[in-house]
Amino acid sequence: MRIFTAAFAIAAGFIVLLGYFFPDQLESLRLLLIDWAIIIAGMAVLVGIFNLVAVQMEKIRMRQKGGTYGVILVVALILTFGLGLILGPDHPYMRLAMDAIIMPVEASLMAILAVTLIYASIRLLRRRVDVMSVLFLVVAVIFLVFTVPTPFGPILGDAGNQAIINFLGMFSNGGARGLLIGIALGTLLTGLRVLFGIDRPYGGN
Amino acid sequence: MLALGVLIFAAALLVALTLWRRRSPGSLRLIEAYERLNRSMGLAVENGTRLHISLGRGNLFTTRGGSALAGLAMLRRLSERTSVSDRPPIVTSGDASLAILSQDTLQSGYRAAGTEDQYRFSTGRLAGLTPFSYAAGTVSTIHDENVSANIFMGDFGTESALLVEASDRENANLIAASDNLSAQAVFYASAQEPLIGEELFAAGAYVGAGTSHEASLNVQDILRWLIILAIIIGAGLKILGAPI
User: Are B150 and B63 members of one domain?
Assistant: First the structure.
């Protein structure tokens, strides 16, 4: 069975990849396989939600730390899922659940995130004092100073601010491109390993 | 056709270097974060604490899936080495397909270690499907599961700051790498030894996942030098006024 799943996964991977290079011959087969994969991914969401509920139920049953939050999560999930099925996602009550609960919670987390990021940058020099850390902080502060609106308008005038941002952007864009090229190469090699069946994340080894 | 050429060249190099590496193993440069990871694995088994591995939100249908696959390759080896622990590792992810793959990978690791009967599907978890629900679900795992080391490998966004903060509060070791530039900035500011750029993809080689992972690093190095050469030659030709 494991050999069969590996062979099927590798064959599907090769067909999809070659389909990009030889669209006349393999386009229809490639699209068919991608359609199947999308359907399976849709089912995976349901399986994932079942997994989420099962983990929370286990927490509740074993009276583990955080079990109370598990109860709230499971009840809210069942209510939202049930009402969503009956009323439909466009019903005012369902929209209310989104506007009155999910959006404010996400906005609050965003606010906490902003504070956390500022705190992390303050602690950076306590954690690691080296040239790169100092440079990282200085550039971040300069970017903030010259991009954030002030009550007095642009600090060095529009042209002055833009010149400084362009100058620093020259280095940061170059660095970002370098990092992205490295990541692209890593992704390419990781994909090839999966395609050759060396790495089998689908449980084949 | 250039893309196909690069692909075939990379594939041929990978196969050749894997075979070569099997006959003459090489050495890897020291990356402090991976040293810390190997120490954390040993400590977790000895102390009866857990490793928590978070694979991010990389959807396998997008280009972000590459980092998720790299995280899974590392997970396979970690689960094999720590499956005998009293407290087995826990894996969280923010994508349903990735969560299922993490369960399969964990099970493979247990099987390879001969402890498949100890595998529990609840150790591979879907933490949430949106960035913040994923962060909220993962933070509770960090706080509640007696975690001694957090390993974040995959596609994260700025929400990773919340995960790092939770790890810090628990005084847990942190090893973090991402393919996302925002998350890399967060990790650079927060982690003890940050992993930058393609170092994420070196995880498998540094946890002993096999010669093919080491060969992958060699191929990446060769391709990187070729790209550098191409950029320099291209810039030179442009300066000389060549029509490129």
Answer: yes
B31 contacts chain A (CB < 8 A): no
Q: Does residue B21 fall inside a structural domain? A: no
CB contact under 8 A, B101 and A202: yes
Total domains present in chain B: 2
Which pLDDT does position B24 carry in this prediction? 81
User: Is A49 in CB contact (< 8 Å) with chain B?
Assistant: yes
Are residue B188 and residue B228 in the same domain, yes or no? Answer: no
Residue B224 has pLDDT above 90, yes or no: yes
Of A157-161, A189-193, B182-186, least confident by mean pLDDT is: A157-161
Which positions 52-91 of B are in contact with A (Cβ < 8 Å)? 60-61, 63, 66-67, 69-70, 72-73, 76
**For residue range B46-92, what is the model confidence (pLDDT) as tens digits?**
888 899 999 999 888 888 888 999 999 899 989 888 887 888 899 99
Per-residue pLDDT at A11 = 92
> How many Å lie between the alpha carbon of B137 and the closest alpha carbon of chain A?
10
Structure tokens at A99: 């506007």
Rounded to whole angstroms, the Cα distance separating B71 from A194 reads 13
Q: Residue B229 is part of which domain span?
A: 210-244
B106 lies in the same domain as B202 = yes
Q: What is the least distance, in Å, from the CA of A127 to any CA of chain B?
A: 7
Residue B92 within any structural domain of the chain: yes
- The pTM (predicted TM-score) of the whole model is 0.89
Alpha-carbon gap: A188 to the closest alpha carbon of chain B (Å): 8
Residues of B in contact with A176 (CB under 8 A): 181
pLDDT of residue A205: 58
Cβ burial, residue B179 (10 Å; 0-12/13-18/19+)? buried
Q: Please, are residues B94 and B116 in contact by the beta-carbon 8 Å criterion?
A: no
In 3D, which of A123, A129, A175, A141 has the Cα closest to residue B190?
Answer: A123
- Whether B165 is covered by a domain: the verdict is yes
Cross-chain residue pair B198–A58, CB shorter than 8 Å: no
Answer whether residue B11 is part of any domain: no
Residue B25, pLDDT > 80, answer no
- List alpha helices for A88-202, DSSP H: 92-96, 103-127, 131-147, 157-195
